[in-house]
């Protein structure tokens, strides 16, 4: 028997835990602790423990598929590439759109970006950060000049006060939740504001439930209290921030007095005052948020408000402080860093900057140039263009994304995909989206290739190959390179390894300049920015100065605005959506992991006990949830652990898809949809 252990990085959430894959006779059969990673010190959550189970699922795609007369038939790689090249050559650049992925490596995101901008010459490329943290990128960049989590995961344990708003950390980032426990054991006060009494809330010294979509009012109230009591960090504010007087005028207005915000948010005035005192007087205070803050039509406003609070209290560039935006998927930070966004190349270098455009065009060496130096469409805008302006976009290349379960208003998403003349999907399973494709390309998972991913704390870490891909499946970067070759651009995609691609990325990306595989192979890896080969990396951003050219942080006065859709007589409840401990994103991997699927085999809707009584609904009874966009039949979970008037559904489950109900209303800047608040009615079936 041949047995080996291959150290790698978890393919699920953005925490970036390390573990060993156990490989027996060439096949991955289990996971074992790897204790040298400082992030998780050998511990993993249930998803990480069973991260081997989907790898050899019988559902894995093993051959290219081409749809003929409405049915998939197996094809050779050459047949698939020939068809893709013939079709994509027939479209104008701006008729093509590409979706990259938070599930694949940095190297593969970079190559799809290069394929889009260099081979297809389209400016339309995006990925699922649009659905989770696009508002973080825009909001934190406006506040600090850099749109990423400011502090490190280890740093959370050092904090003297941890304020969690819009994050169920213990279920979504369990090993970051462990740092909150360590902070608590070190004497920190823990504050959790959430519409649900989550496992995270159960750790809190102060918990308050509130209405989804009232975050700005709550944060303004806390800042108003801090200023009225003189708890702001006057030195930090005077030396390092712009916009204080305007912010002060807004947050100290009567609208945001605790007694008034109690009426808006449902949080008792006394709890708001206590939270303000704890945050304002702590030696250090870390703010943690996730999609509860970002997935709103005011997502950018929400993010800027978290930044305002942390600047006001001097918790930027400070150990134990920071705006800790917890990224959902393993490599959503990396996909953004790699320029799989419609407005930037790698390292957030702007597409519309002529010098940047020339730098990439020169480095890549396409004889016929690259896409125009213009911003492209966000994924949510692509789907709206498909339905509202048929014929403008004609072809799409999707790598590792599943919009047919992850996008808002799935009826609209399905209608959008149906408008395409030609759709290519590159994935490891025949997902709900792949079923709509004209060509499906069988790809590889994290256990079958080498590469890097960048976790939520900007730590760049390695994946290592543990087994061969199944059947004829190929590594994603190899597929992209072969598509480029079929289109006539083999010379621009000469790669023999992921490392060669990484070295090209590092050469073009200032924040990755000092990284190479030798350095990243160390257990602690590296945080960007890492500008030179002797630079130690940057676990905490903005020490001494922010990343704006003048080094100053920018405070933004923001007024609270309600969600795009609020309850009324016809749809009297607020629906919010999210995830659970046992599943991840659209469930394509976790629902094919026997242990995880057994634990939680289907979805549910959480209904407050009093609401359920008024509706005559018993626990576990099937109910019908309806919004203005669709209807879902789903089992009820009657509980005191959700605020009266609010309901919750996880979005992992196709048979009771929460996103049939959600609202496609977008933040005007980040174009992120409002997954966290829409109006629904619920009735017994
Ligand atoms: Fe994987 Fe996240 Fe769990 Fe760590 S906390 S094992 S990265 S899912």
TrEMBL record:
Coiled coil regions, renumbered to chain: none
Gene Ontology molecular function: 4 iron, 4 sulfur cluster binding; formate dehydrogenase (NAD+) activity; metal ion binding; molybdopterin cofactor binding; NADH dehydrogenase activity
Class in the EC hierarchy, top level: oxidoreductase
GO cellular component, one term: membrane
GO biological-process terms attached to the record: formate metabolic process; respiratory electron transport chain
Entry annotated with the keyword Metal-binding: yes
Membrane-spanning parts: none
InterPro entries from the UniProt entry: Asp_de-COase-like_dom_sf, CT_Formate-Dh_H, Formate_Dh-H_N, Formate_DH_asu, MoPterin_dinucl-bd_dom, Mopterin_OxRdtase, Mopterin_OxRdtase_4Fe-4S_dom, Mopterin_OxRdtase_prok_CS
EC number(s) reported in the record: 1.17.1.9
Cofactor: Mo-bis(molybdopterin guanine dinucleotide); [4Fe-4S] cluster
Domain 4Fe-4S Mo/W bis-MGD-type, chain residue ranges per copy: 3-59
Keyword terms, alphabetized: 4Fe-4S, Iron, Iron-sulfur, Metal-binding, Molybdenum, Oxidoreductase
Family, per entry: Belongs to the prokaryotic molybdopterin-containing oxidoreductase family.
Protein name: Formate dehydrogenase subunit alpha
Organism of origin: Methanoculleus submarinus
